[in-house]
C-alpha cells in the first residue's frame, strides 16, 4: 500500500513538474509578446475570449492569464468586461492540457524526453533551448501520467475505492465537493483532471463518476485568483468574484442536466475511450458555459459591481500587481513588475503636482497628502526591487534581462523623485510659517518652472507606459529646457539682488527650490532615457 501511495504521489509530482516546465519555457518564448497582444486586441468580447484561450493554451496556466488580465484592468488598458472575456477564454484554454494527456502517447515518452534534453544541451539559441525544455517537460508530464496509472491499477480491487466510486455514482454532489477540495489543495485543475484521465485510462472510473469530480475541479480552479485578489484593488476583486460566480453557476446548471451531459459526451467521443470522454467533457463544459455567458456579460458584471461597490480612492501601501506565484514565468512576472513601477510612478507624479501646487498656493491638505504617500513610495521601491531581484534567479532571455535592468533603474529614479516632492512640500510649509516672501517676478518664474517640471515627468511616464521612444525624446528635450530655464532664474535672481528687488535672506530658499525641481526633472529624464535604450545616472 505504501509503495503504491509513493508511486501515485511521485507520478503527481512529475506530472505537475512537467506541466510547470512546459509553461515556464513556453512563456519564455512567447509570454511577453502574448501580453502585448492582450493589451492591444481585446476591444471586442469575442476577441478577448479567443485571446484568453490561446494565451492560456500556450502558457499552460490559466492563473497567469487571469493575473495578466487583472494587471491590464488596473492599468486602464482593459475594462472589466474585456478582462472577463479573457478570463472566460482562459477557462477554455486550460482544458488543452487534458486534451494532450488523453492521447495514448506512452510508447513515445522516452522519445520526447531524449529529443527535449538534446535540444536543451546542444542548442545555441536560447529560444531553441526553451523549446527543447517544453518537449522535455511534456515527456516528464507523460511519465508522471504513466506512473500514476501504474500506481492506481491495483485500486480496482480495493474495497475503499469501490465504495468511493459507488457513493459518487449514487451521490454526484459528493464527487463535486471532492473535486473542488482536491483542486484547491493542489492549486491546479490540470493536475486534478490529469489524475481523472489516468483513472479512466486504467478503467478505474466511469464517465458518470468522473464528471461531477471534473465539475468540482472547475470551481476549485478559481481559488488562486481569489487568493491573489484579497489584498488587491476593487477591480481585481470584482474580476475574481465574476470568475467564481461564472464557474459556480455553470456547474450548477451542468449538474441539473448531468444525464444529458453524459449522453452528449459519449456521442461525440470515441467508443469506450473514457480518457477522451473526460477530456472532452472538460472542454465542452467550458466552451458551452462561455457561449451561454457571453450575451449576459453586461448584466452579469453590473450585478458583480453592485455586490462589490467602489470603495473610493485608496492607495494601497502593498504592491497591487506583484504575484510571487508568477515568478516561475519571468515574462509575466516582468510585465507585472512593469505595471507596479508605473503605479509607483503615478503616485510620485501626484506627489510632485501637489507639492508644486502648494508652493504656488499653500494647501495644507495637499501637503498632508504628499507626506502621507511618501512612505508608500519608499515601501514600493523596496518591494519592487526585491521582486525584480527574485525574477533574476530564473534564466532570462536577452530582452527580459535588459528590461530587468531598466526597471531597477526606473524604481530608483522614482524613489528619488518622491524624496524631492516631499522636500518641496515641506518647504511650502516653511515659506508660509517663517514667512519667506518672493518678488512677483520670482513667483512667476517658479510657476513657469513648476509647469515645465510636471510636463517632463508626465511625458516620461507616458513614454515608459507605452514604450514610446518618440515621447521619451520629447521628455529629454523638455528636461534640457528645465535645466536652461533654472539657470535663467538664478541669473535673474542675482540681477534682482543687485537692484535690491529681492530680499537676500530668501536666496537660500529659492536656490533649494530650484535644485529640487531640477532634480525631479533630471530623474524623469533618466526614465525617458531608459525607454530610448540609454542610461544616465544622476
The gyration radius over C-alpha positions equals 29 Å
* Main β sheet profile: none
Q: What's the N-to-C terminus distance? A: 66 Å
**Beta-strand residue fraction:** under 5%
Mean pLDDT: 81
Shape: elongated
Q: State the order of secondary-structure elements, H for helix, E for strand.
A: HHHHHHHHHHHHHHHHHHHHHH
Q: How many helical stretches?
A: 22
Structural class: mainly alpha
Provide the low-confidence segments as ranges.
none
Tally of DSSP β-strands: 0
Helical content stands at over 70%
How are the secondary structure elements laid out?
Blueprint: H1 2-40, H2 45-59, H3 62-74, H4 80-93, H5 96-102, H6 109-122, H7 126-152, H8 159-170, H9 172-186, H10 189-201, H11 207-220, H12 223-229, H13 234-256, H14 258-268, H15 274-293, H16 297-307, H17 330-360, H18 364-391, H19 398-433, H20 440-466, H21 469-498, H22 507-532
Helix pairs in contact: 1-2, 1-7, 1-17, 2-3, 2-4, 3-4, 3-17, 4-13, 4-15, 5-10, 5-15, 6-7, 7-10, 8-9, 9-11, 10-11, 10-15, 11-13, 11-15, 12-13, 13-15, 13-16, 14-15, 17-18, 17-19, 17-20, 18-19, 19-22, 20-21, 20-22, 21-22
Amino acid at each position: 500500500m505504501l509503495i503504491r501511495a509513493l508511486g501515485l504521489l511521485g507520478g503527481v509530482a512529475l506530472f505537475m513538474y512537467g506541466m510547470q516546465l512546459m509553461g515556464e519555457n513556453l512563456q519564455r518564448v512567447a509570454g511577453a509578446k502574448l501580453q502585448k497582444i492582450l493589451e492591444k486586441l481585446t476591444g471586442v468580447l469575442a476577441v478577448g475570449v479567443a485571446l484568453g484561450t490561446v494565451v492560456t493554451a500556450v502558457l499552460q496556466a490559466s492563473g497567469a492569464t487571469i493575473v495578466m488580465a487583472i494587471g491590464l484592468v488596473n492599468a486602464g488598458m482593459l475594462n472589466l468586461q474585456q478582462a472577463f472575456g479573457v478570463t472566460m477564454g482562459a477557462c477554455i484554454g486550460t482544458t488543452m492540457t487534458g486534451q494532450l494527456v488523453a492521447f495514448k502517447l506512452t510508447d513515445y515518452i522516452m522519445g520526447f524526453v531524449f529529443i527535449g534534453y538534446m535540444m536543451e544541451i546542444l542548442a545555441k539559441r536560447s529560444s531553441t533551448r526553451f523549446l527543447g525544455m517544453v518537449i522535455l517537460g511534456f515527456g516528464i508530464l507523460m511519465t508522471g501520467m504513466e506512473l500514476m496509472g501504474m500506481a492506481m491499477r491495483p485500486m480496482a480491487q480495493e474495497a475503499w475505492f469501490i465504495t468511493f466510486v459507488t457513493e459518487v455514482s449514487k451521490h454526484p454532489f459528493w464527487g463535486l465537493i471532492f473535486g473542488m477540495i482536491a483542486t484547491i489543495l493542489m492549486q491546479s485543475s490540470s493536475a486534478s483532471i490529469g489524475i481523472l484521465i489516468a483513472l479512466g485510462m486504467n478503467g478505474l472510473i466511469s464517465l458518470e463518476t468522473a464528471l461531477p469530480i471534473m465539475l468540482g475541479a472547475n470551481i476549485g480552479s478559481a481559488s488562486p485568483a481569489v487568493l491573489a485578489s484579497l489584498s488587491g484593488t476593487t477591480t481585481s476583486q470584482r474580476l475574481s468574484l465574476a470568475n467564481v460566480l461564472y464557474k459556480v453557476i455553470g456547474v450548477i446548471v451542468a449538474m441539473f442536466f448531468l444525464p444529458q451531459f453524459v449522453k452528449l459526451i459519449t456521442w461525440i467521443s470515441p467508443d469506450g475511450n473514457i480518457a477522451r470522454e473526460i477530456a472532452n467533457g472538460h472542454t465542452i463544459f467550458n466552451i458551452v458555459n462561455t457561449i451561454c455567458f457571453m450575451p449576459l456579460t453586461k448584466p452579469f458584471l453590473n450585478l458583480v459591481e453592485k455586490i462589490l461597490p467602489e470603495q473610493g480612492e485608496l492607495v494601497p501601501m502593498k504592491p497591487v500587481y506583484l504575484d510571487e506565484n508568477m515568478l516561475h514565468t519571468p515574462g509575466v512576472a516582468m510585465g507585472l513588475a512593469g505595471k507596479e513601477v508605473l503605479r509607483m510612478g503615478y503616485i510620485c507624479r501626484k506627489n510632485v503636482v501637489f507639492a508644486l501646487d502648494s508652493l504656488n498656493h499653500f494647501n495644507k491638505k495637499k501637503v498632508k497628502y504628499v507626506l502621507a504617500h511618501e512612505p508608500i513610495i519608499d515601501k514600493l521601491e523596496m518591494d519592487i526591487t526585491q521582486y525584480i531581484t527574485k525574477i533574476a534567479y530564473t534564466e532570462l532571455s536577452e530582452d527580459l534581462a535588459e528590461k530587468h535592468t531598466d526597471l531597477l533603474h526606473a524604481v530608483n529614479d522614482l524613489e528619488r523623485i518622491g524624496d524631492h516632492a516631499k522636500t518641496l512640500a515641506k518647504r511650502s510649509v516653511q515659506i508660509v510659517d517663517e514667512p519667506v516672501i518672493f518678488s512677483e517676478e520670482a513667483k512667476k518664474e517658479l510657476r513657469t518652472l513648476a509647469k515645465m517640471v510636471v510636463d517632463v515627468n508626465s511625458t516620461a511616464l507616458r513614454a515608459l507606459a507605452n514604450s514610446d521612444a518618440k515621447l521619451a525624446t520629447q521628455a529629454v528635450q523638455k528636461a534640457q529646457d528645465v535645466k536652461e530655464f533654472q539657470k535663467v532664474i538664478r541669473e535673474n535672481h542675482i540681477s534682482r539682488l543687485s537692484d535690491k528687488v529681492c530680499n537676500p535672506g530668501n536666496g537660500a530658499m529659492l536656490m533649494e527650490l530650484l535644485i529640487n525641481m531640477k532634480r525631479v526633472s533630471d530623474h524623469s529624464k533618466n526614465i525617458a532615457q531608459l525607454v530610448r535604450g540609454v542610461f544616465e545616472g544622476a
